[in-house]
Please model this.
Amino acid sequence: MTTAALEKLLLLYAQRFPLRRGKMRVIDSLWRAAVGDSSTHRVASLKHGDFMLPCDLSAMLQRQLYFFGTYFVEEYILRCWETAAKGEVIFDVGANAGIYSLAALAVQPDATVHAFEPTPEIAAGLRATARLNGLNHLHVHEVAVLDRAGQATLRRFRGELGANEGMNFVTRDVVDPTGERVETISLDRFCQNCEIEHVDLLKLDIQGHEPSALVGAANMLAGGRIGTIFSELNWARDRATACPASEVVRLLDQAGYSFSKPGKHLHWKKAGHWLRMETEIIATQSPRKAIR
Model:
């Protein structure tokens, strides 16, 4: 079998074979044989909106996008995100390759999407994706979202196997002269500068800095000016210990939000111990019915 034929077979297997179990292991074990001596650069065709996305198969998340047309492990969250993406102004904080930004534009092409990504080459890749697809409403901001404007140090981390390009994070230290500096912004300041009165949908996935981003959006939250929020929850091993996840819940609960697990049907509840089982959460200011 030629390498081109093997690559085509893997694409068909990833996107059409009905059983999900073990798929990622098969792709990870065979993709190098399928590529052979050719370049690892490809253009993915995404499930969400049929957008085209330049990718490098040597990077784990981009490899998922190429073979599956989506993030393999997050597809159910993306479907829920698409359902929520009905507003005019959408913020994707921690955008990475921009799959959430693109999924929002797939269902709401006239929305204005602001994608925030501090890693220079990843932000450049997302800008290239926007140009490739003619997405004039997708604005890429090469900044880290924290509690205030300034600078932070970008820490590059690719996971234990060195292949996950989506795990870079920032720190506030200013004593490392060799560190890679990036600009920071608060959401309150950004909205003030851009004259944005209301954010319909906000995604937060910034490696444990979600509470800092919410602190920097205190005025927007207090004014009821952020409608729905998707946030990653980074719990401590002992989930009774104060940690980024518990602080996210506290800040949103204090601002009057109710919560639901991502899913086909959203069931709004008040904050409680049930949240300690969740790694992603949806919060809204105006649920139809919130229960305890």
